[in-house]
Backbone:
């Protein structure tokens, strides 16, 4: 079993040691938003601040309009369940639909239901006076009703006011863009949502790190960004160890190659250690 780096918090960073090298994990001052810089992140929106500011990262997917994803058949089958999600009374909606529709057929009934549900969902949209969770809970429930995995959750930071409501939706368009199967999604969606929530919170609330590999006080290599305080889960630990392994192997290879040159050039055996000791712990790879 591979031994992880035993990090401990010092004055301004996490410190650890691996194979004679010091590893320091430090906060990134201006980390990149992974939903802006990376591909194939789950479509999401966040609601934060006193004024319930909505920020959406969905690559064009309309995750604030779940009814757009409903077929006519699904709307006919699930309209009563939608009433429950939106806190509407079934009998009142049924009466309103029949009163407002001149042609008494299923198609026109659905058009009127869509209008009512759209208006109701819009009325839940958060403001200074409205709870944001009602809005994203309703959206998530409406997606889940037709088998599109969605989750509404929240995240908090270390300071007062560091709080946000989050919605993640695995849209069919997202699955097509990223090339994974519905079977994989059905199996892994809970794990994906947990990863998404932790990733967003790490970025939003300042838990993003880079690492320095240090030997004899000199920085050999720096790498980042890694999201989250768990340096094993974020792969900072593994990447730092791989970096040290490479530096050591590269150093050994350089000494071996240099020794072969010294032997070929018939350099005195007494001078060889001095020359070999001048080879630095640096790699042309980085």
Residues:
């Amino acid at each position: 079993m591979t031994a992880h780096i035993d990090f401990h918090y010092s004055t301004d960073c996490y410190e650890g040691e691996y194979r004679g090298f010091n590893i320091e994990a430090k906060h990134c001052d201006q980390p990149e938003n992974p939903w802006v810089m990376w591909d194939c992140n789950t479509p999401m929106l966040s609601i934060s601040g006193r004024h319930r500011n909505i920020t959406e990262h969905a690559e064009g997917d309309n995750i604030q309009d779940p009814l757009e994803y409903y077929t006519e058949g699904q709307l006919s089958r699930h309209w009563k369940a939608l009433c429950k999600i939106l806190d509407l009374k079934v009998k009142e909606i049924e009466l309103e639909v029949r009163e407002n529709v001149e042609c008494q057929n299923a198609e026109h009934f659905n058009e009127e239901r869509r209008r009512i549900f759209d208006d109701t969902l819009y009325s839940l949209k958060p403001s200074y006076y409205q709870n944001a969770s009602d809005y994203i809970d309703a959206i998530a429930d409406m997606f889940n009703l037709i088998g599109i995995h969605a989750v509404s959750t929240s995240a908090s930071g270390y300071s007062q006011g560091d709080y946000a409501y989050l919605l993640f939706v695995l849209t069919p368009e997202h699955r097509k863009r990223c090339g994974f199967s519905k079977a994989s999604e059905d199996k892994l969606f809970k794990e994906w949502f947990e990863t998404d929530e932790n990733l967003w919170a790490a970025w939003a609330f300042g838990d993003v790190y880079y690492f320095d590999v240090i030997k004899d006080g000199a920085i050999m290599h720096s790498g980042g960004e890694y999201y989250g305080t768990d340096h094993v889960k974020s792969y900072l630990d593994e990447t730092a160890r791989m970096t040290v392994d490479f530096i050591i192997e590269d150093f050994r290879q350089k000494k071996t190659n240099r020794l072969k040159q010294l032997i070929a050039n018939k350099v005195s055996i007494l001078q060889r250690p001095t020359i070999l000791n001048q080879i630095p712990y640096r790699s042309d790879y980085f």
Remarks:
- The mean pLDDT is 90.
